[in-house]
Amino acid sequence: MSHILIVHAHPEPQSLTSALKDLSLEILQAQGHEVQVSDLYAMQWKAIADRKDFIETVDPDRLRYIAESRHAYASETQTLDIAAEQRKLLWADAVLFSFPLWWFGMPAILKGWVDRVFAFGFAYGVGEHGGERWGDRYGEGVLAGRRAMLILPIGGRAPHYSDRGVNGSLEEILWPIHHGTLYYPGMEVMPPFPVYQSDRLDEAGWQQIAVDLKRRLDRLFSDAPIAFRRQNGGHYDTDQRLKPGLGQGEGGTRIHLLQPGDPEERLVQGV
């Protein structure tokens, strides 16, 4: 069976978010998968990216985080907590992110996990540049071949997150996470599993959520991921702008989704 990592971010073990994490663990283990859990609050994860992330520094006088991240990853001098989480990601066939939607994004501790673990040379700064190719990203990269899915309690009502909802569509709200954080280093991103009005869920609602979550996890490796265009699939020009004729009839970030009739994607060879 598969290896699955759950990255969990909620401070209360008795919360709905934690219950969903526990249920996911139970379902996946019953299916025969091997599962690891990174419970960030329980781990007392260091969320702040700073000089303490580097055992040795290139420049002791001024912190250039990207340069230090590149050096630490290449020289294997990252701190133990960062390296351990990277090993979990490389071990995993799929990664589930369990967190509540707070202020239209991740809790700070999870954002700090991304900031520190997604190091230069690991999640970005990978691959050759030349012509239409700008490195291995957006569909390629170190984390290619893995699937990712958000398990996402939300306090508001579903209509508030619809295409005409006052909060904006959930698809647009999650674009920075789905496309910018998970697809960027190569992961295939599954549609999210939102739980709306999470602070008003009754027992009957929980039972239905449990059925729905099991159905989604049963199909974690068979359902189609979100159809983002690959950066190096031939659809973008040398300025990384979508080529004329593509994205017709769509607006906003949806132009970056594959559409019926689009030319077949190809790999642009590095130069």
UniProtKB/TrEMBL annotation:
**Which terms are listed as keywords in the entry?**
Oxidoreductase
Looking at the record, which segments are called Disordered?
232-271
Per the record, its GO cellular-component terms are: cytosol
Keyword Transport in annotation: no
Could you cite one Gene Ontology molecular function of this protein? NAD(P)H dehydrogenase (quinone) activity
Q: Does the keyword Oxidoreductase apply?
A: yes
| InterPro entries in alphabetical order | Flavodoxin_fold, Flavoprotein-like_sf, NAD(P)H_dehydrogenase_qn
- Name all Flavodoxin-like fold domain ranges: 3-210
Question: Family per UniProt?
Answer: Belongs to the NAD(P)H dehydrogenase (quinone) family.
Stored PANTHER family: NAD P H OXIDOREDUCTASE-RELATED (PTHR10204), NAD(P)H DEHYDROGENASE [QUINONE] 1 ISOFORM 1 (PTHR10204:SF34)
Q: What is this protein called?
A: NAD(P)H dehydrogenase
